[in-house]
Automatic annotation (TrEMBL), chain A:
<comment type="similarity">
    <text>Belongs to the binding-protein-dependent transport system permease family. FecCD subfamily.</text>
</comment>
<dbReference type="Pfam" id="PF01032">
    <property type="entry name" value="FecCD"/>
</dbReference>
<keyword id="KW-0812">Transmembrane</keyword>
<feature type="transmembrane region" description="Helical">
    <location>
        <begin position="200"/>
        <end position="221"/>
    </location>
</feature>
<feature type="transmembrane region" description="Helical">
    <location>
        <begin position="127"/>
        <end position="149"/>
    </location>
</feature>
<dbReference type="GO" id="GO:0033214">
    <property type="term" value="P:siderophore-iron import into cell"/>
</dbReference>
<dbReference type="InterPro" id="IPR037294">
    <property type="entry name" value="ABC_BtuC-like"/>
</dbReference>
<feature type="transmembrane region" description="Helical">
    <location>
        <begin position="64"/>
        <end position="85"/>
    </location>
</feature>
<feature type="transmembrane region" description="Helical">
    <location>
        <begin position="91"/>
        <end position="115"/>
    </location>
</feature>
UniProtKB/TrEMBL annotation, chain B:
<keyword id="KW-0547">Nucleotide-binding</keyword>
<protein>
    <submittedName>
        <fullName>Iron complex transport system ATP-binding protein</fullName>
    </submittedName>
</protein>
<feature type="domain" description="ABC transporter">
    <location>
        <begin position="2"/>
        <end position="225"/>
    </location>
</feature>
<dbReference type="InterPro" id="IPR003439">
    <property type="entry name" value="ABC_transporter-like_ATP-bd"/>
</dbReference>
<dbReference type="InterPro" id="IPR027417">
    <property type="entry name" value="P-loop_NTPase"/>
</dbReference>
<dbReference type="InterPro" id="IPR003593">
    <property type="entry name" value="AAA+_ATPase"/>
</dbReference>
<keyword id="KW-0067">ATP-binding</keyword>
<dbReference type="GO" id="GO:0005524">
    <property type="term" value="F:ATP binding"/>
</dbReference>
<dbReference type="GO" id="GO:0016887">
    <property type="term" value="F:ATP hydrolysis activity"/>
</dbReference>
Length: 343, 239
């Protein structure tokens, strides 16, 4: 393991599991479609049952792809933040980036009625929602970063992140107090988190943002690895600190912001998946960790979504509930087992 | 407030030098300024006759490597991964190690006898072992100059001596210039080629025995508490 291991076996394993979860996710739902039928529909041979084709192509396939993008993207943004903040508890949700996205979304959905004079175009479409919540998450992320430069303490930073979350929650509740019922309902449903509401067009936007985020992460592999030693060491290794930091922040904001815009604030995935991945693949090298975290995040999200669908029943649980139930114990387990947090 | 001024010294290839002085006199500040971690307040610093500020960060990375007092950010790094990071200034955009990189890494591993630890994570190492790994990483960066900020703190006498002897042999055998700050004045006197005594007055820089002759150590600490014995090169507590 000392010399450059390629971890090809790990990756083959991860991809097989991902593929299995993907197919299971598509098969299961309120209507169970058999494995063979699913494959037939996916590979284009026309099934007799037209409603199944419709369910799979218009509902389940976009949802499964959303799950992959959301899980992978949020996990990657978690990994980037943990390295950037040198903090094992960093993640888009805990540090208030998701709250920032919520604030952006809330301002757009509910705030437009308050400032309707100025914003009469009211073109509240998917793209403006994505931009608003991305801006919101960038805003909170840069605030956290400014504060992070002043306090070096891990715990203080976390508490500050929670405080930012409280502030945005307060603003959101003020907004909801003054807004109309149907807009409030719209926001509440957004905040439950959902993978199932995305059209193919929206999916394309998320995919594009995720791809840019992944691209920026890949060109930052070297700086990310150097950051593992600390900023001064990274500087002594010839890394341009400011530039790398900005690229990583933009990647994080783009990933967390765009995903939260369409799928709602999804808890704990970003925080927990990098830790789970590091239990599976024992390396800190981002060249290995970035693809591994993407695979693990996507797999976990598919599993969570499959559970949330309550296969065989008509009801659907909010995805946020499932990720929290799975994610929060991971954080507790990490704290209890290791005592000292290591990332 | 200016604490120490008019500091002037130069180091040649293959020299081991120490910066000593009482707490708060600016040893670490001086070292960090030399390593370009903080801006120059006044004066000039040159490497091979060229002003420090004319080097960009990547060029600096092939001139100066450092071992800092701050602990590394991720103790989850394995020893080999940490060592390999020393090659960053020379590797491609993905950080892939070429054959020459691997052979340089292996040479330093052999020199510092790190074979037993390669697969270990940094949090599993003792302070002395981690310090050796960090020194090896600096060596692997393959620079003409190595700066170390208090490389012997938290170590017992045996490991202090081991580290300092190691630095001496590296400086002499690989012809590198090594500069470190230290509170181990007595050990530094025995091992260093040159010493800089930061006292805020003379800031004497010379070979240790010359410094003893010139009685530069005598007034380093308040003389009513500690005196310097020039015969043994050690400090005595006044009773």
């Amino acid at each position: 393991m000392t010399n450059q291991s390629t971890y090809s076996f790990h990756f083959i394993g991860l991809l097989i599991v991902l593929l299995i979860c993907f197919v299971i996710n598509i098969c299961l739902g309120s209507v169970t479609i058999s494995f063979i039928d699913t494959l037939k529909i996916l590979f284009g041979s026309v099934s007799e049952n037209d409603s199944n084709t419709y369910i799979i192509w218009q509902y389940r396939l976009p949802k499964a792809i959303t799950a992959i993008l959301v899980g992978g993207g949020l996990s990657l943004s978690g990994l980037l933040m943990q390295t950037l903040f040198r903090n094992p508890l960093a993640g888009p949700y805990v540090l208030g980036i998701s709250s920032g996205a919520s604030l952006g979304a809330a301002l757009l959905i509910m705030g437009t009625s308050l400032f309707s004079g100025a914003l009469t175009f009211s073109a509240f479409n998917d793209i403006t929602l994505a931009i608003a919540s991305s801006l919101g998450s960038f805003f909170v992320l840069s605030l956290v970063l400014v504060v992070a430069a002043k306090v070096k303490d891990t715990m203080a930073l976390l508490i500050i992140g929670l405080m930012f979350g409280s502030i945005t929650a307060a603003i959101v509740s003020v907004l909801s107090y003054f807004t109309k019922a149907e807009k409030l309902q719209r926001y509440i449903f957004w905040s439950f988190g959902s993978l199932g509401n995305l059209s193919w067009v929206q999916l394309l936007i998320v995919a594009l943002c995720t791809m840019i985020g992944i691209f920026l992460s890949i060109i930052s592999i070297k700086p990310l690895n150097a950051f593992l030693l600390g900023e001064n060491y990274a500087k002594s290794l010839g890394i341009g600190l400011q530039k790398s930091r900005y690229i990583i922040i933009v990647a994080t904001g783009l990933l967390a912001g765009s995903i939260t815009a369409f799928a709602g604030p999804i808890a704990f995935v970003g925080l927990a998946v990098p830790h789970i991945t590091k239990q599976l693949i024992h390396t800190t090298d981002h060249k290995i960790q970035i693809p591994a975290v993407l695979c693990c995040g996507a797999t976990l999200m598919l599993i969570c979504d499959t559970i949330a669908q309550l296969p065989g029943s008509v009801s659907v649980l909010p995805i946020n509930a499932i990720t929290s139930i799975l994610g929060a114990p991971v954080v507790i387990w990490l704290l209890v087992r290791k005592r000292k947090m290591i990332f | 407030m200016v604490i120490a001024s008019a500091i002037s010294f130069q180091l040649k290839k293959g020299e081991l030098a120490a910066i000593v002085g009482i707490n708060g006199i600016g040893k670490s500040t001086l070292l960090k300024t030399l390593g370009r971690f903080q801006p120059i307040i006044s004066g000039s610093i040159k490497i091979e006759g060229k002003e420090l500020s004319t080097y960009d960060y990547l060029q600096m990375a092939s001139k100066i490597s450092v071992v800092l007092t701050e602990s590394i950010a991720s103790k989850n790094l394995s020893v080999y991964e940490l060592l390999a990071l020393g090659r960053q200034p020379y590797t491609n955009w993905l950080g892939k190690l070429a054959d020459t990189d691997v052979s340089i890494i292996n040479k330093s591993i052999a020199l510092l006898e790190l074979e037993p630890f390669l697969d270990k994570k940094c949090f599993q190492l003792s302070d002395g072992q981690l310090q050796r790994v960090l020194i090896a990483r600096a060596l692997i960066q393959d620079t003409d100059i190595i700066l170390l900020d208090e490389p012997t703190t938290h170590l017992d006498l045996y490991h202090k001596v081991q580290i300092l002897k190691l630095l001496k042999s590296i400086a002499h055998e690989t012809n590198k210039t090594i500069l470190f700050t230290s509170h181990e004045i007595e050990l530094a006197i025995q091992l260093c080629d040159k010493m800089l005594i930061l006292d805020g007055r003379e800031n004497a820089f010379n070979e240790p025995c010359k410094l003893i002759e010139n009685k530069n150590f005598d007034t380093l600490f308040p003389t009513d508490t500690i005196s310097f014995d020039s015969n043994t090169g050690s400090f005595r507590i006044k009773k």
